[in-house]
Amino acid sequence: MIGEPRALAQKFVRFAEVECRGASPLYESLAHSIADHDEILELAAHAAPGQPAPNLLFAAVHVLLMREPETPLAEFYPSLTAAARPPGDAYPGFRTFCRRHAEKIRALLESRRVQTNEVRRCAYLFPAFAAVARLAGGRPLALIEIGASAGLNLLWDRYAYRYDDEAVYGALESPVLITCQLRGDGRPPLARQLPTIAARVGVDLHPVDVMDADAVRWLEALVWPEERQRADLLRTAVALARRDPPRLVSGDGVVVLPDILAEIPAEIPVCVFHSHTVNQFSPEQRERFTMALASLARTRTLYRVSAEWLGAPVPQLTLTTWSQGRADERLLARCDHHGRWLEWLD
Q: What DSSP string runs through 58-75?
């Protein structure tokens, strides 16, 4: 279990006001109501340590509703009905549902993880990898994702991209089309020629098998109810991944990275990347991870692309280059946590 009810209440308030506002009226309303009721907070406290309790609780309820769409509470979920009822009226039914299904919800909170495989984040990974490819002199790249979930973001070069203009970049004929709004005056490097990927490996404590229907349903439950386009994009990306799934390794990145890098020829540049992953690390774990990368970079050129939301007003996209043991970090962009917009700064 995590946190005291009052401290947990503040996490729900922040979730409502910072993450949900303008994106999920249902979760914004429910999160505010939950913050005032110890009964539901005590249930949410069963989330595993390090896991974001609001996301986990809402996903647990969502996945149960997906199994029983005739439940009255489902009438408030745009993902489950064509004409959802007003979100401000949802909390009494939500509380009743949680009471009736407390045991199932508790089991999900204790066993599941927030492993959102947000494909639209590739909208900012695409230009970040273009920047890496340019630094690497056009050589083939090896990609290693930490916190890969199902590894869908490892397949970024199999997707098509459209930003503010009508031009399409990436894999032009892909069934997965990712759109993104550009903000500010900067323009990201949108390469017409995609870099060659020599290897791609995902690392996760609990990898998600795209062939496992139950595991994929959990990924769908993590998508907010109003975001039907986001859910459709996830399903399309999963269908594409099933044709040729990426390699996923189970384990702690710090532990397994040395063995993975040992498989990759020394002359191939390696890019380690992660998005909204290290927020689930303790400060000590983050430092340990960074030190491990620095150590591995002593014998080869290593890049790190990081898209994280750690105290800044919005998520930040950074690129760290290690060469001959020296690190250089650049702030590339500010971005939306679901990839809806990108402000390129570099």
A: HHHHHHHHHH-TTSGGGG
- Look at residue 1 and tell me whether its pLDDT is greater than 60: no
Q: Which residues contact 165 (CB under 8 A, 6 or more apart)?
A: none
Q: Give Dmax (Cα) for the chain.
A: 61
Check residue 194 and report its DSSP letter. P
Range of the domain at 214: 119-344
Q: Are residues 249 and 334 in the same domain?
A: yes
Rounded to an integer, what distance in angstroms lies between the CA atom of residue 17 and that of residue 37? 17
Return the DSSP state at 245: P
pLDDT digits over 35-74, tens only?
Answer: 999 999 999 999 988 899 999 999 999 999 999 999 999 9
Mark whether 189 and 98 lie in a shared domain. Answer: no
Share of the chain above pLDDT 70, in %: 99
* Residue 224 · residue 29 · CB < 8 Å: no
Distance from C-alpha of 135 to C-alpha of 275, rounded to nearest angstrom? 21
Report the C-alpha gap between 59 and 62 in whole angstroms: 5
Q: Does 133 have pLDDT greater than 90?
A: yes
For residue 321, what is the domain's CATH number?
Answer: 3.40.50
* β-bridge pairing 141-146 and 168-170: unpaired
* Amino acid identity at 342: L
Greater model confidence, 312 or 316: 316
